[in-house]
Amino acid sequence: MTSDRIAKENLRRRFRQNQEDCTITVLELLPTVAENILEALPSERITQELQQRRADRLGRSAGTSDITTSELSSRTPSTKDDDSKSLSSFQSESYVHASQIATSTSDGGEQRAPRSKVQLWHELKISSITRAFTLLYTISLLSLLTRIQLNLLGRRNYLSSVVSQASYSPRTPTVNLENRDDDGVQRSYGNDFETNRKYLTFSWWLLHRGWRGIMMTVESAVKEVFGPLRPTEDVGLEKMSALILDVRRKVEGSTVEERSAHKWLSHLLPPRDDEDIVLKESGIITSYPESNSLPSPPASAEGSSTQLRRLLDETSDLIDSPMFTHVLTLLLDAMFSRLTDQKLRSEAYKLLPPCAQPVARLEDVTENDPATASAKLATILAVLTREAHKIGNGVPNEYVQALDSVSDLEAFAAVIYSSNLELQANDVDMTCPRPVPAGEEPSAEAEPPAKSPGGDGVVNRATAVADAAWGGFESVWNKITGNGEQPMVG
Questions:
Q1: Fewest CB atoms within 10 A around its CB: which of 27, 286, 353, 363?
Q2: To which H or E segment does residue 311 belong?
Q3: Which of 69, 74, 19, 123 shows the shortest CA–CA distance to 410?
């Protein structure tokens, strides 16, 4: 039993390390897509233009001497006055990086048609909200895609190591330095550097292309929900939460059925006709032939191509599964809760976080009732403008930490890590342990990932999933060795 316990702990250790690798990978990839989104929605540039408009108007007012004091005092407060107050509120709550400030002629030297202040404020409103929400959606999807990729490879590499060890005589007590040719085993089960490198490269699609579709969908919903609001308008916290929920419903769907029907695959992976574009843009393929199609792979690369196809197909199946949609909803719940219940609540509405207990004191007593709290929309936009940089480039990144705290994400990874092992083991002749010769491919097609018995709960705890999956790992080992030996340790 001791060896069984050690082997189980080793499996858990491998799985936990894999999830840590997923988090590190997300943090490494995140700045790339964040930069693309921030450049596409330059809220700071609009702010700079509003500031310049205000400065010009104040300069002209200071130089006007033919308007009497009585004439100035008799004027009715105008929209311009409201805009000035909104801009002051925005400036006091936000900040503009010097590197992000650009004049109206900085975009390739092209002159833009002058826009009114009303138009600028509307653009600032839509831009600030859209880019913060787009970042939340993109990070959540990137985290799920990375979990799928690394856990599929982790599962295949584990099986590869099992098959490789089973190929050696278990009764040989000495260390043999002979080079045993088990390359066929490694290629058959995915422990192939070139295949893995190509497969991981497909995250390029989300980082450089897929996020645009997400942005367009979010922007359309934001315009519909927030379009009528003015920057000087007071927005209560409860109303703001309801507006954000309306945006999410329009993007994701209002019901479980609508959310299940929403397909995210086109944002995460390219269509088959564009897969060569990903490999070329990422540097895997350096050139195309004149026909603009990929050359036929040599015989030695056919196995790698088949394994890559299987990985991409299984990834697509997972992305289209109800389990993916369920976990994505939970991740977005955590992300939007972090933004609304933590950041907007404390920085825009000046309220204590929900979990904080107010300190009883006589001075500086402020009302802490979310039902009555309100803030200018301009103030909220300022917080969202600032928060977008923290979402994409924060160190430490609170939003990535919020994702990692969702237990169903780890459970989803455990289901991926433990599924299909029985089928893949059957692809090898179990009657006699041997390496699979180079170029020989398993004949069976991959099954869809195993469905969780937990219904909407998916899997309550990832540890329970790993324990349940242990029988599959042990069965695979017994089929390969045929003698009930324990899986490898270490």
A1: 363
A2: helix 299-319
A3: 19
Decide if 130 contacts 227 (C-beta within 8 A): no
pLDDT number for residue 114: 74
How many angstroms separate the most distant Cα atoms in the chain?
105
Mean pLDDT over 457-486 rounds to 47
pLDDT band per the 50, 70, 90 thresholds, residue 417? confident
Of 130, 125, 141, which Cα lies nearest the Cα of 218?
Answer: 130
pTM (2 d.p.): 0.75
Find tokens 């995210």 and name the residue: 264
Query: Up-side HSE of residue 482: CA atoms within 13 Å toward CB?
Result: 10
Name the β-bridge partners of 234: 376
**Per-residue model confidence as pLDDT tens digits over 221-278:** 999 999 999 999 999 999 999 999 999 999 999 999 999 999 999 999 999 999 999 9
Torsion (CA) 274, 279, 281, 286 in degrees, nearest 10: -120
How many CB atoms lie under 10 A from the CB of residue 420? 19
Rounded CA separation 154/197 (Å): 13
Cα-based distances in Å from 70 to 57, 75, 79, 405: 20, 9, 20, 62
Q: Can you spell out the DSSP letters for 422-457?
A: HHHHTTS-TTS--PPPTT----SPPPPPPPPTTGGG
| Residue in 197, 176, 210 with CA at minimum distance from that of residue 308 | 197
Backbone angles phi, psi at 321, to 5 degrees: -80, 155
Residues 472, 162 contacting (CB under 8 angstroms): no
CA distance 446 to 429: 17
List the structure tokens of 314. 């299984």
Angle at 223 between CA 348 and CA 127, to 5 degrees: 55
Express each pLDDT in 22-64 by its tens digit: 999 999 999 999 999 999 999 999 988 888 887 777 777 666 5
pLDDT category of residue 490 using cuts at 50, 70 and 90: very low
